[in-house]
Design goal:
Structural class: alpha+beta
Oligomer: single chain
Largest sheet: 5 strands, mixed
Distance between the termini: 32 Å
Length: 682
């Protein structure tokens, strides 16, 4: 009997369950997709290092799933409160007919189980389909071979999803039972008659609070994006974050008191059509949701920042690989304390390892890393005008000096621009943005330097892009290129070998790469102490395009997946809370819609009013979140630039599309459900 009642209730209230069911299905699907990454990557042909990165990613996603399940659990409990409120009259009728609270709780228990099982099944089916689409993203991110692709279902992800969501549903069941046990018949009967009263706040106080909050927010924006923020204590950044959160709360509090006053003062606007009703409804909603609006706004801010930053890391590293890693392999070495020329290739050959044999073409270049010129010397007075921790740490670092012919030899091999110099000129080659700015400031003054007894002036008023060490990030802090005549007599303490493998397919190149690395590790790394010998300060290293690519791909993939996972969950949570609040307010206002119908309002006017209410309600926290994000992304970009990573328009576009689809989808579903609710009483 109770099962039939539960099933009938679900069929009858299917529309009321739309948002709840929609959210549960998306939650289950997203949870499954990201926990099935391990299965999706099992069939990929990737290198050993990439496989290790994938294992780390799986561990990180599993750990984040605990946090995600907590967020989704709170969301499900919040959603169940909406459904309980919607059915107060139904529960009152059950009690009037003599049904005990235990049986009502049993009905809710059965309903929760049915909805839970249905959402799990639908979510897992959708998640299984989406996980196949995710395979394409995985292949793209890891540049993997998809020839062995097959349709896969992750049993481990299914079990994990069922366990986590079963726990969530169990919590909801307990919550519902507690609520029913505390219900009183009189309160259930009168619940539909009670409505929120609009408390008109003092407009002068609201204006003052709004001005103070705006000033506090501007201070936080300017401080966190100031050039000296990284040189100051971490406490200041924390204070800025707290100030931003408090200012957000105060803005919503003040706006909730001002919005109606401002519209009422514009009488033509206020008395046009149903605007007076519309704005009173909006004011009432915001008044009762100041704290929730603040949390939603901050969650949306985190979502925008997380998604855009994650995509930026991936995009930047992909682009950097194309321009900063134009050789298949590179050996480099320093002999810091030796006062004689150093040739890394000859040193390798002394140990029976000849790297040149692996290359179809190669070039060797040497430079002087022992110049008596520090970065401070090449920056002059500009050095004292910057408080950046990075710049300060670099100031006493010795500049690397290379002759024009040696640099051009490497530049031509790497596909970079070559240069010419007069006998009294020098060029600084640099590609790290934060250092570029300081060097450009110094070069614009025409600062002269003395190299090997020759006074030189800068040929250009700004640094030139270039590098000698292949990388996936802009990390070259500076290289001074001087005429060959100036470099004569310098001890060549730094040596580079750049090479390209013979042409072949991916698999052939990877085998060549692995053979080179294995021989290097066995003959050099395995005998490093013997290799160094008595040359204190000797250091050698090896980078290959595939090593750098795998590393950058791994970092980009981790940033992308973690950003997507957290960002989408926060976005769903924010949109679902707004949707449920809007639907709850619609239920409470059904009587008001009946009244304005009796006063002569037609259905088009009512629909327009409802659309405006829903749109503004969804738009307000998003607008402030976007404003926060403008400055937040700028702060993140400053951090990324210090690591040689740049932001991109494409990352913002991808973020906007995700938000538009999910957030916009919730808005449309909420509007249609609300419209359906107010029409049923027509």
């Amino acid at each position: 009997m109770l099962f039939k009642i539960s099933l009938s209730n679900i069929r009858k209230s299917l529309r009321d369950y739309t948002i709840y069911f929609f959210t549960l299905i998306i939650g289950v699907a997203i949870f499954y997709v990201f926990n099935a990454i391990g299965t999706q990557t099992a069939f990929l042909k990737v290198s050993e290092s990439t496989r290790e990165i994938i294992d780390i990613l799986k561990t990180l996603l599993s750990g984040m799933s605990i946090f995600v399940s907590f967020i989704l659990g709170l969301l499900i409990v919040y959603a169940s409160r909406f459904l309980m409120k919607r059915r107060n009259n139904e529960f009152a009728l059950y009690m009037l007919l003599g049904m005990g609270k235990a049986k009502i709780s049993a009905i809710l228990l059965i309903e929760t189980m049915i909805i839970g099982i249905a959402s799990l099944v639908c979510g897992l089916l959708i998640g299984t389909g989406l996980s196949q689409v995710m395979s394409a993203l995985v292949v793209n991110l890891f540049d993997a071979d998809m020839t062995a692709y097959r349709f896969t279902i992750s049993g481990e992800a299914i079990i994990k999803t069922i366990i986590f969501f079963s726990i969530m549903y169990a919590v909801v069941m307990v919550f519902n039972s507690i609520v029913i046990s505390k219900c009183k018949l009189i309160n259930l009967i009168q619940s539909g008659r009670r409505s929120e009263k609009i408390k008109m706040k003092n407009p002068w106080l609201c204006t003052f609070v709004f001005i103070v909050a705006t000033a506090l927010l501007i201070w936080a924006y300017l401080t966190v994006n100031s050039e000296t923020i990284f040189a100051k204590s971490m406490n200041l950044m924390i204070i800025c974050i707290i100030a931003g959160a408090v200012a957000t709360l105060l803005i919503f509090w003040s706006v909730s008191g001002l919005i109606l006053r401002l519209v009422m003062s514009a009488k033509k606007l206020y008395f046009k059509s149903l605007n007076s009703f519309t704005f009173r409804q909006i004011s009432s909603k915001i008044n009762t949701m100041v704290v929730s609006m603040t949390l939603i706004c901050l969650m949306l801010f985190v979502t925008i920042g997380t998604l855009s930053t994650a995509f930026s890391i991936r995009t930047s590293m992909n682009e950097s690989l194309k321009t900063l890693c134009n050789a298949d392999a590179e050996f480099f070495g320093d002999n810091i304390d030796a006062k004689k020329d150093f040739d890394v290739v000859e040193r390798f050959r002394e140990f029976g390892f000849d790297p040149v044999k692996y290359f179809d073409e190669y070039v060797t270049v040497s430079s002087n890393g022992l110049s008596n010129i520090s970065i401070r010397d090449t920056m002059g007075e500009v050095a004292d005008t910057n408080d950046s921790i990075l710049i300060t740490a670099l100031m006493d670092m010795q500049e690397e000096v290379i002759s024009l012919s040696e640099y051009n030899k490497a530049a031509e091999f790497l596909g970079n621009p070559t240069f010419t110099l007069d006998e009294d000129q020098y060029i600084i080659v640099c590609d790290m943005p934060t250092v570029d700015e300081m060097r450009n400031a110094a070069l614009s003054t025409g600062i002269k330097i003395t190299v090997n007894g020759h006074e030189l002036s800068p040929k250009y008023k700004n640094v030139q892009e270039g590098y000698l060490i292949i990388s996936a990030q802009h990390m070259n802090v500076g290289l001074i290129v001087v005429p060959d005549s100036v470099a004569e007599g310098f001890t060549e303490t730094r040596s580079y070998l750049l090479g390209n493998y013979p042409e072949g397919d991916k698999e052939t190149i990877r085998r060549t790469d692995e053979a080179l690395i294995n021989e290097y590790n066995s003959k050099i790394q395995g005998n490093y102490e013997q290799f160094v010998g008595n040359d204190k300060g000797l250091y050698v290293g090896l980078d290959t395009h595939l090593m750098i690519s795998d590393s950058s791909i791994g970092l980009g993939a981790m940033a992308t997946f973690l950003g997507l996972y957290l960002g989408i969950v926060f976005l769903i949570s924010s949109a679902a809370v707004l949707a449920l609040k809007e639907l709850s307010e619609t239920i409470d206002s059904i009587g008001r819609y009946d009244m304005i119908r009796k006063l002569g309002a037609d259905e088009k006017e009512i629909s327009r009013s409802l659309f405006a209410q829903t749109g503004i309600f969804f738009l307000i926290p998003m607008v402030l979140a976007v404003i926060h994000s403008v400055f937040g992304i700028q702060f993140a970009q400053n951090l990324l630039r210090a690591a040689g990573i740049s932001n991109s328009i494409s990352s913002l576009v991808a973020t906007a599309i995700i938000i538009l689809v999910i957030y916009g989808g919730y808005f449309i579903v909420t509007y249609l459900c609300s419209k359906s609710m107010i029409k049923e009483r027509k």
